[in-house]
Design goal:
It is a single chain. The chain is of the alpha+beta class. It contains 14 helices and 51 strands. Helix 6 packs across helix 8. The N terminus is likely disordered.
Length: about 850
């Protein structure tokens, strides 16, 4: 039995390895195909007429690698007095002639735009017919190749390549009503294209294929695949009939590959059950091999590298999402690629149930930067980002499914498929509107945060329980730790007990939220989003919280560490100025009384001497003292020579100017052991890295009890705030990660070893300590530091004075925490003033304030 399970898992994992590459295959084929293709902006004139029917003749000369073509075009004026038409066609093709109503038309052909001057002015709704004849060398998206030493000709026009071989509107928003595609090639070749094959005719030593596409189609979905194929014919059976399913296979691959296409009719049946009937049921569906490393969802006939299962189901999904309903422009490409990618997940679910669905989606997680909405559609690589347009976009549908519920989700898809966008184009807002109408839910924030917003939620959570009158009360605290937007999502909370498990659904939409649950049985474990319906990061036990006061951000852990790297690279570090870079690798409280007992969280050997106190969690408060207090309690229990010391750490930050350039950290240290601790030194260690970490300077001001590092006009420092502290020690450590050795830490802490060199650049770290103290058994002591930033030395020292004042007046008990502060004007722009002015006034406390305005003559201005 174990062998069977293992083999099944390995088989499924192997399948997933192919799935993981689907976005890569699909996107890379398009990216590389258009590395030299220029983005085409719609000309203003192209908004003035609608395309109707095309009859497109292409004569392919494989020997000369050239084509000649004729486009018979029907279109309709959208304005009065229309007297010209703009078409996109590459300048490498020459225009032979253009005529309408048996009259020759003049034209200009520059920069891939063909401007046709009509024979008269046309009114709104009036039909226009014209014929364009052209010839020459096609553009980069019309390929002349060989396969197995035989001629191979193929096209791949998405996003902006249709103009490389026929005159068109090169954007997806104006679909042709229908198109005939008549292609003449040498006699041994087979032409596969859109729609149904109407006829083949032999003309001397050539053969002409006539394909008819009678459904609306965007220009980039028109395609040719030409080769001496061997054709496999299957059928998709449905109520009322059958439809041909064609596979155009390289003859040399036919015997090895033909059976791999047998799954396509099954895929058609499965996807039709999810999305509604296959949208081109009156014609066909097919796959034609071509030479690029992926697939392309050409309407009714996918072009693909080979019969890879998940690539085939991806491209088939596009027949609904991309071909039947096409993104209006490539800003909204996720409506094509995200939907097709989630089609792969549904196929995995069909084959392997819930395990298949979630395993597949796990393989598609993207936890990086970027919006699904494509701002810059001039870059094909950005449009077809595998991470964003495919993988993350598929997660949006996965999350939406759980938010609205399974039955509602599939009802949304079927109503979307039958909406007025059927055989037309759509935007995110069009799809969102249908989602809201069907579900009855307000989903604006969902789409805003996931389509237009960046990143994803990072959930830190902690929980405990207590007994109360025979019940078990579970307290849960969830913090969204990401720096970016706060996400609003329902979250499944699963609590396991001895008798089973219960799942509660909570709404989480704030930086920090607390929840209470009542159980009949003792909880064993609590899991956030057990089935992984949210694209997220999760860390159990809230270990890190950010102070963020708009000028300085500092990551604070629950066990004595600061900065980026402890714990596990989770923190954002110290960012100052707020729009700048991280300036702190890591930092830590440090104390000790000998070389055998120095307690800190060392980055060098990853030894964390501090341990979070059991049954405690990091807590966040918004008080009338500061704008944000972060409190945590931890001990020295992880140190092998633990003396049973407990540290109650509280850090404070303010969002009002001029207090935004520092954060105060206060340590209340208690000796809970039964022995006195003599010769105790206590300090704050910070491995600041400002700009290039090898080019930092270090300096100190002993009168101010301040040590600081600088580079690139950024100054970051530590200030000891206790005025009665014993013998401040200012220690500079050069290459601390290399030299921060356990055996000599006490020498640094007590000032016996100091590499302080103010004129030397290097990888400095700062240590500001004080001592010696005696901490008797049962006694406590307090020590406080400020972490300060400045964009010059004067600002650093001014902020240090403000930090000292706040400490003196608040943390030592004085009432007025805003010494000598009145209302201040923090921002005034523009200066000098034009017709408008922006003024920001900071008030140190809640109070009534009177604001008056005076002109340059000193006269009061009434507003």
């Amino acid at each position: 039995m174990k062998v069977f399970i293992l083999l099944f898992f390995l088989s499924f994992a192997f399948g997933l390895s192919a799935q993981e590459n689907t976005a890569l295959l699909c996107s890379k084929s398009r990216i590389k195909n258009y590395e030299n293709s220029l983005y085409v902006r719609e000309t203003g004139n192209q908004n003035d007429f609608d395309l109707g029917f095309y009859k497109l003749y292409i004569d392919v000369n494989y020997v000369s690698k050239q084509i000649s073509g004729k486009a018979e075009i029907t279109c309709y004026s959208k304005i009065n007095n229309l007297n010209e038409l703009d078409f996109d066609i590459t300048s490498s093709l020459s225009i032979k002639k253009i005529f309408s109503n048996n009259k020759s038309l003049s034209f200009e052909h520059n920069s891939d735009v063909l401007k046709v001057f009509l024979d008269k002015k046309y009114s709104t709704g009036q039909k226009i017919t014209l014929t364009i004849e052209y010839y020459g060398q096609s553009g980069a998206t019309f390929h002349f190749d060989t396969k197995y030493s035989l001629p191979m000709i193929w096209t791949l026009s998405e996003p902006y390549g249709s103009k490389d071989w026929w005159p068109c509107k090169n954007l997806p928003d104006d679909k042709l009503d229908s198109i005939d595609i008549i292609v003449t090639v040498q006699k041994n070749l087979i032409v596969a294209s859109n729609g149904l094959l109407a006829s083949t005719d032999t003309i001397e030593n050539k053969i002409q294929y006539h394909w008819k596409e009678r459904y609306p189609i965007s220009s980039y979905l028109v395609s040719l695949a030409i080769y001496p194929y061997k054709i496999k014919t299957d059928y998709y059976y449905y109520d009322g009939g059958k439809m041909p399913v064609l596979s155009y296979i390289f003859a040399s691959d036919y015997e090895s590959d033909k059976d791999k296409y047998n799954v396509v009719p099954v895929m058609l049946e499965v996807l039709s059950s999810y999305y509604g009937q296959y949208p081109f049921i009156k014609e066909k569906y097919g796959n034609a091999q071509f030479l690029w490393g992926g697939g392309m969802e050409h309407q009714t006939l996918t072009s693909l590298l080979g019969p890879y299962e998940y690539l085939m189901v991806h491209e088939l999904g596009h027949q609904w999402w991309g071909d039947m309903i096409t993104c209006k422009d490539f800003h909204h490409i996720w409506l094509n690629e995200g939907f097709a990618s989630y089609t792969e997940a549904l196929w995995a679910e069909y084959k392997s149930g819930e395990f298949g669905l979630h395993s597949y989606m796990d393989s598609k997680k993207y936890l990086g930067h970027g919006t699904i909405y494509v701002d810059d559609i001039s870059q094909s690589g950005r449009i077809f980002s595998g991470a964003l347009s495919y993988n993350k976009a598929s997660w949006v549908l996965h999350m939406l499914r759980h938010v609205v519920g399974d039955s509602t989700f599939f009802e949304i898809l079927q109503q979307y498929a039958q909406s007025d966008k059927k055989y037309d184009v759509a935007t995110t807002e069009d799809f969102a509107k249908i989602c809201k109408n069907v579900s009855g839910m307000d989903l604006d924030r969902f789409f805003n945060q996931w389509i237009y917003g960046d990143y994803h939620p990072v959930y830190l959570y902690d929980w405990n329980y207590r007994e109360d009158m025979g019940k078990y009360i579970v307290d849960l605290e969830i913090e969204q730790f990401q720096l970016e937007n706060i996400f609003s999502m329902p979250i499944d909370i699963t609590i396991k007990t001895g008798s089973g498990k219960e799942t509660f659904v909570i709404q989480n939409d704030d930086k920090l939220q607390k929840y209470i649950f009542e159980l009949n049985n003792k909880p064993i474990s609590l899991i956030l989003d057990e089935n992984d319906w949210i694209l997220k990061e999760v860390k159990e036990g809230i270990d890190m919280v950010n102070h963020d006061n708009s000028e300085m951000l500092l990551s604070v852990s629950s066990f004595g560490s600061f900065g980026h790297n402890v714990p596990d690279g989770l923190g954002y570090g110290l960012i100052f100025p707020r729009e700048g870079e991280n300036r702190l690798f890591y930092g830590s409280l440090i104390f000790g009384n000998s070389s055998d007992y120095v307690v800190d969280n060392s980055e060098k050997d990853k030894v964390l001497d501090f341990k979070k106190k059991e049954n405690s969690s990091i807590s966040i408060y918004k008080t009338n003292i500061s704008n944000l207090d972060i409190n945590t309690v931890y001990t020295d229990k992880n140190h092998p020579e633990s003396k049973d010391v407990e540290i109650n750490q509280t850090s404070y930050s303010w969002s009002l100017a001029p207090f935004r350039d520092f954060i105060i950290v206060k340590y209340d240290i208690k000796n809970k052991g039964n022995k006195d601790i003599d010769n105790l030194y206590i300090g704050q260690f910070m491995d600041f890295d400002i700009g290039d970490y090898l080019e930092n300077y270090i300096d100190k001001n002993e009168d101010e009890r301040l040590i600081y590092q600088s580079a690139d006009n950024i100054f970051i420092g530590i200030k000891l705030l206790n005025r009665n502290s014993e013998n401040p020690v200012f220690t500079g450590l050069l290459n601390a990660v290399d030299n921060w050795d356990e055996n000599i830490k006490f020498d640094y802490l007590s000032g016996q070893n100091n590499a302080f060199l103010t004129d030397k650049q290097g990888d400095w770290s700062s240590l500001l300590s004080s001592g010696p103290y005696t901490l008797n058994a049962g006694d406590s002591m307090s020590i406080s530091f400020a972490i300060i930033g400045g964009t010059n030395k004067d600002q650093l020292f001014v902020s240090a004075d403000y930090a000292q004042s706040l400490f003196d007046h608040y943390l030592t008990g004085t009432d007025n925490i805003y010494p000598d502060q009145t209302n201040t004007i923090a921002i005034l722009y523009p200066n000098p003033v034009n017709d408008k002015i922006h003024i920001e006034i900071n008030s140190p406390k809640i109070q009534h304030s009177k604001i008056s305005f005076y002109n340059v003559d000193g006269k009061k201005v009434y507003l």
